[in-house]
Design goal:
It is a single chain. With about 150 residues, this protein is α/β, with parallel strands linked by helices. The protein is about 35% helix and about 20% strand. The protein contains five helices and five strands; from the N terminus they run E-H-H-E-H-E-H-E-E-H. It is globular and about 40 Å long. Bound molecules: 1,3,4-trihydroxy-5-OXO-cyclohexanecarboxylic acid (DQA).
Length: about 150
């Protein structure tokens, strides 16, 4: 598949990356991460579009839009909504493409309320604890699966 579109969704508080608890989330900013994803996508003939929102409904609207605009896959870090949002799960269940869930931190090593993910009930793959590399690994997996 060439020129495939991937939507990268970042949930609440991820706009603060770089300054938010850097011992957990690292020193890179969201722009740093998105720019690396854009570069990798373009290099492989893919089109990446990233969106961050602190609002559940905005993330859901973006998933709905992805159903209609030919988006092949969604990479999503739902942040705290991971652990609370049946609404994001429902929206992803209405999306036909691949879904990869990414967490910068290893949520399983942290508080028990972070161990459960609604989004994992839909995700085709889950990456946690690899920092920003997790997003690139997710994109790599999508590109390789599409070429296989
Ligand atoms: C996170 C983990 C979540 O538990 C947390 O609420 C976040 C970020 C991560 O990327 O490690 O905001 O999704």
């Amino acid at each position: 598949m060439s020129q495939a579109k991937v939507l990268v969704l970042h949930g609440p508080n991820l706009n603060l990356l770089g300054t938010r608890q850097p011992e957990i989330y690292g020193h890179e900013t969201l722009d740093d991460i998105n720019n690396r994803l854009y570069e990798k996508a373009a290099f492989n003939g893919w089109e990446a579009k990233a969106l961050q929102s602190n609002h559940e409904g905005a993330l859901i609207d973006a998933i709905h839009a992805a159903r209609l605009d030919g988006t092949a896959a969604i990479i999503i870090n739902p942040a705290a909504y991971t652990h609370t949002s049946v609404a994001i799960l429902d929206a992803l269940n209405a999306f036909d493409g691949k879904v990869i869930e990414v967490h910068l931190s290893n949520v399983h090593k942290r508080e028990s309320f972070r161990h459960h993910s609604y989004v994992s009930l839909r995700a085709d793959g889950v990456i946690a604890g690899l920092g920003s590399q997790g997003y690139l690994a997710a994109l790599d997996a999508l590109i390789k699966a599409a070429d296989a």
